[in-house]
Structures are given as C-alpha cells and as structure tokens.
Amino acid sequence: MAKAKATAFFCKECGYESGKWLGQCPACKEWNTMVEEPTAKREASGRAGGGVRRVEKPVKLDEVSLEEQDRIATGYPELDRVLGSGIVAGSLVLVGGDPGIGKSTLLLQVCRNLASAKHRVLYISGEESLKQIKMRANRIGTIFGELFFLCETNLDRIEESICSVKPEIVIIDSIQTMYHENVASAPGSVSQVRESTNILMQLAKGLGIAIFIVGHVTKEGVVAGPRVLEHMVDTVLYFEGERNASYRILRGVKNRFGSTNEIGVFEMREQGLAEVQNPSEYLLSGRPEEASGAVVACSIEGTRPILLEVQALVTQTNFGMPRRTAAGTDYNRVNLLMAVLEKRCRYEMSRYDAYVNIAGGVRMNEPALDLAIVMALVSSMKDRPVNPKCIVFGEVGLSGEVRAVSMAEQRVNEAIKLGFEACVLPQVCLDKMRRMDKIALYGVSNVREAIGLIR
C-alpha cells in the first residue's frame, strides 16, 4: 500500500488544504498563496484543550437565558470603547500591529490595571525573558496584585499553567512563537499558528477566561499567518501609527461584542502609553492661524467626532505632467475632487501641482472630508486663508453638489466645545438641525457657494 503523505499544501489567506500545489486557491481565488506544511497528527482522544470543554446537548432558543454580559474594565476607557465597553469572559482577542508600535507595552499596562483591580492575570511571553519583562514593567510603574509571568512557547506546558493558576485573563505574546509538539512544522508556520489558535480558543471557551493574542503583521499590514486566524477569534484589533510619531490609534476591524467603528487614541510617553481623552484638541495643537490652505474638518469614528486639520499646497507645475500627493487620505479621491473643481468651477487645476496632508499623521477616508479638501485646495491656490475659527464638512458629488453627511449635529457640538465660531455644512443637514446660538452655521448646496465664503 502507498504510504500516506506527511505534508499538505495550505492557503495562507483562508487555510484551504490541498494534497497538491495549486496556482490559485479554489476557496478564496487568491494566486500563489499555497505553501507546503507538515500535517498535524491527530490524537485518538480528540485533543481540544485537554478535555476542558464539557459535552453539551442540543437545546432550543427558548431554553437559552439572555442575561446582561458581565464586562471587565481594563482601566483605559479608550480600550474599553474599542472592545465594546470592556473585556468579555471567554473571549479570544487578537491584537496586531507593526514591530515596536507598543502592543506588548499596552497589554502589560492593562495587566497592571487588572491586577490592581483584584483580577488574576497570567502574562505568557515567548519572545522576552523575565528580566526583560521586569525592565519594561519598572518603566511603566509598580505592579500590585495577582499578576503572574511565564516565559514558555510549548502549548502543552502553557495549558498546564493556565489550568493550575486559573486566571481570569491570559496574554499570549506572541502567537507566532507558540508551537505544539504534534505539529512537525516550525513555529510561525501556517499549521502551527492555526493549531495553536485552535487550542487557545477551546481553552478560552471551555474555562471561561479571556485570552489576548499578540500577532505580528506582514509588510502589507495584515496579521502574519493564515487568514483563518482572524475568523477564529472573537475580536481583531490593529494598533496603528508611525514609529517616529508619538500618537497611536487602536482600531477594531472585527468585534462580536461591539462596534467595529470605534477607535482609541494613545500617546507614547517615557512611562509607556497614555490615552488621549480629547483627540481633537491633540490633533489641532500647533495649528497656524493665518496660513492659506489650512482648513479644520470634522470626521466621525464610530460615535466619536474628531476635529482635524486638512492642509493643501498648490503650486504651479514646471513639467507637462502635474504632480499629485496625498498623505492621510485617499489619493484617488483627491484627483476626483480636483477634476470637479476644474469642470464645475473652471479652475485650471491641470496646471498646478497639489499636495494634500492630514495633519497629525492620522488616516481618514470619510467622504465628509471632501468639502474641507476642496476649500483647502482653493485657499492655497488663491493664497487666501480660511477663517481659523471655522470648521468645514460635507460630501462632494461629481456634479459639484454638497451632499448630506451623518451625525451633523454631533460634529457641530464638538466644534462648539473647542471654541469654534462658524461652521460650513451641507444645506440639507442645516435644514434638519435645531437652532444653535453659540456658533454661526452656513449651509451650502454646491462647491461654488462654499468657495465664495473664502475671504
């Protein structure tokens, strides 16, 4: 009889398994994603967390009791907002981000807060020694309470430690360093990452503990390993930001217990990460008062309005092909808005180079920034500054009309809190809003009316 193959081919994107190499994955239709890995050995006893999960019988929906899910506060309202008002017991959370962005620092600070609140926490590191962890812990402050540390990469030993310590929250740093002896491939491979995540998922559900998994990202900005990893976990968080900038943004891209539109803003300091309670004030600090091409806009992230500065620099081109650059917003969207200005407002934008930037290094792609980008471009081209006490928001259509945006009243209220005196918004939104005495509202129906407000 022919000997069974000890290896198989797996798709890095979706985890599809095949006995031979394929140029295109039949499941997700991606090209050149099949990699050869040793197949995992299956134990006769059905290894799934060492028999942690008890056998459940099928039930009907009317037999299931719905109770308010208890949440564990992390001590950081910014993180609680992204998680959906706290940590859910039995959940599996994946935290991804670039190297050195602050993932381990943030989770260690969360562990300190949880231990101080009398929660039992286990921090498992496969990348750092105990001395390295202690050096980082001394930098962020004194740690009290039941916080245990373990340096281990073998999942069998990790499972024994979890069962003996019986923590409420477990941190795994990182999933790419974990391995299981029944899988012959190296740590970080598709087989190891998938098997390790599966074991941790069954531990979380079986014991009712919350497990945070740190995942490295590839150069494309996605979590390294098979895409099925993101499908297995309950929540996927991405830690974003430039390494040479002080700000960090925690964004949820998947959340079974809350919204995926919320973000948390943090600032990297010498003592670790500190949350930014008012990101609008933080992003507008150092703004020039009488500079042309600078317009304050308002974007909505989840339920939170954030004021930011849109900067534009328009200069006459010296070549036949004008140059376009966009930092922090969609490059194609900037080209579209410049085409609208040329066609509907008769501005010869094809003779100018244009550089658009969102100050502070944040990235926003909401259509409500369209009108602010248009006014910043015209302000720079005419060298006429926009009122620094005025905010602008609205979506611009291809015919030059200014369309309505959501949550207009919340945006105006945020501007009032920060002392702004005027607001340019779509006329449709103005007609639906209640009267406000603390700020002057200017409704515009098209781009020409908005440009006419530039002094």
Identify the overall geometry.
globular
The CATH class designation of the largest domain is Alpha Beta
Mean pLDDT: 86
User: What percent of residues adopt helix (DSSP H or I)?
Assistant: 25-40%
Superfamily (CATH H level) name of the largest domain = P-loop containing nucleotide triphosphate hydrolases
So how many helices? 12
Strands of the biggest beta sheet: in what spatial order? 8-7-9-10-6-11-12-13-14
Radius of gyration: 26 Å
Distance separating the two termini: 87 Å
- The CATH architecture of the largest domain comes to 3-Layer(aba) Sandwich
Q: Give the structural class.
A: alpha/beta
| Beta-strand residue fraction | 25-35%
Task: Count the beta strands.
Answer: 23
Low-confidence stretches: 42-53
Largest sheet: 9 strands, mixed
CATH topology of the largest domain: Rossmann fold
- What number of domains? 3
